[in-house]
Amino acid sequence: MSMKELEASVSSLRLDAVAAACFGCSRSKTAKDIKEGLVVLEEKVCKNPAQKVNQGDTIIYGNRGQCLVGEVMGLTRSKRQKVKLTRSGKKGGKGVETDTA
User: Fold this and answer.
1) Closest CA to 3 of 97, 72, 83
2) Could you tell me the fold of the domain covering 3-91?
3) Which of 5, 24, 57, 77 minimizes the number of CB atoms within 10 Å of its CB?
């Protein structure tokens, strides 16, 4: 299983924003999938796209893979949250990728 480390900038630490950044899909598509119960946060199905995620949380998104929320590095100049994510599973995702293998 391949693992990729990403640095992403998200508008907030909401589940839909972080999952969309990690798995490379739109926030609206991710929010729809969350409402349909396709996303697991910390071993529980979460149907609330606005659920706040924290450092150390694990997100599993259907068959797309798993994402570990790493360090929250603070705000960018444009007031977005910068966060380190580690994704395992299928390819996709936005941000700067570095191999951790």
Assistant:
1) 97
2) 3.10.290
3) 77
* Domain boundaries defined on the chain: 3-91
CA separation for the pair 21, 23 (Å, rounded)? 6
Asked if 22 contacts 59 with a C-beta cutoff of 8 angstroms, the reply is yes
Q: What is the mean pLDDT of the chain?
A: 89
* 3-state SS class at 46: coil
What's the pTM?
A: 0.84
Cβ atoms < 10 Å from Cβ of 11:
14
Structure tokens at 28: 């609206």
Residues 6 or more apart whose Cβ sits within 8 Å of residue 58: 41, 42, 43, 66, 67, 68, 69
Amino acid letter, residue 24: G
Q: Specify whether the CB–CB gap between 20 and 26 falls below 8 A.
A: yes
Residue 90, phi then psi, degrees to nearest 5? -65, 160
